[in-house]
Amino acid sequence: MEPIVNELKPIDSRIRAIEIFEDVQEKLKEDSEFIGYKVWGNPTGSDNNKTYKLEIDNEVLWICYVSWSSSSGLGTNRKVILTSYPIEKPSIGQVLEVAFPYEFSRKFNTRLYENENIIEVRNYGRFTIGRRGLKREVFFNYLRQEGLEDEILIDADGKEYINIFRIQKDDLHCNYIKKQLVKWTNIINKFKTDQRKIYN
Questions:
Q1: How far apart are the C-alpha atoms of 16 and 183, rounded to whole Å?
Q2: Which residues contact 95 (CB under 8 A, 6 or more apart)?
Q3: CB of 125 within 8 A of CB of 160?
């Protein structure tokens, strides 16, 4: 398979990252139901977060919107959409974290890119199960084994990534965003479940 290279520029702006996050959040809130305040897992701590029910194609997710700080504790450095499945436990463990970082850095797993027409929210394949960090290659090999190699893209530096969202700036559709959240929550949940079996 030939690598797919997308010529978009990295977003390295707090203002722009927040703008994109808020646009996506606004679209999702138009078609989701507020279900109350719930406790989500680390690193959101014990705070109660406004939680919404998102439904599409007979699939249901719970989502919330949070601000996270850098590991150095020097203030907020990203907005994040968290997804999980409906659960009765006191604390919700998120399956998918879609971050909108305030600065561009190759150390971040999620990075934002854009050109005149397109915004991409890219994930570079680093996930954790419990306290165990999984290497990027494990995730991308998993996608290939599952017949999902068409989801793997290659950036200008030759690094593999997936698009959580690829948004047309003048045509932001709620259903597309919802479907992407459901799709990647399902894929990553199965990936993490399979990895837990391996390590347990």
A1: 26
A2: 83, 84, 85, 185, 188, 189, 192
A3: yes
Nearest to residue 199, comparing CAs of 126, 145, 130?
Answer: 130
Sequence-separated (6 or more) residues with CB below 8 Å from residue 15: none
- CA-based nearest residue to 98, from 111, 120, 82: 82
- Cα end-to-end span (Å), the chain: 34
pTM for the full model?
0.91
Token duo for residue 87 = 């659960």
Is 188:95 a contact under the CB 8 Å cutoff? yes
For the stretch 49-97, pLDDT in tens is 999 999 999 999 999 999 988 776 678 899 999 999 999 888 898 999 9
Sequence-separated (6 or more) residues with CB below 8 Å from residue 75: 69
79/66 Cα distance (integer angstroms): 6
CA distance 195 to 139: 10
> How many CB atoms are located within 10 Å of the residue 40 CB?
22
DSSP 5: B
For the stretch 152-197, pLDDT in tens is 999 999 999 999 999 998 888 899 999 999 999 999 999 999 999 9
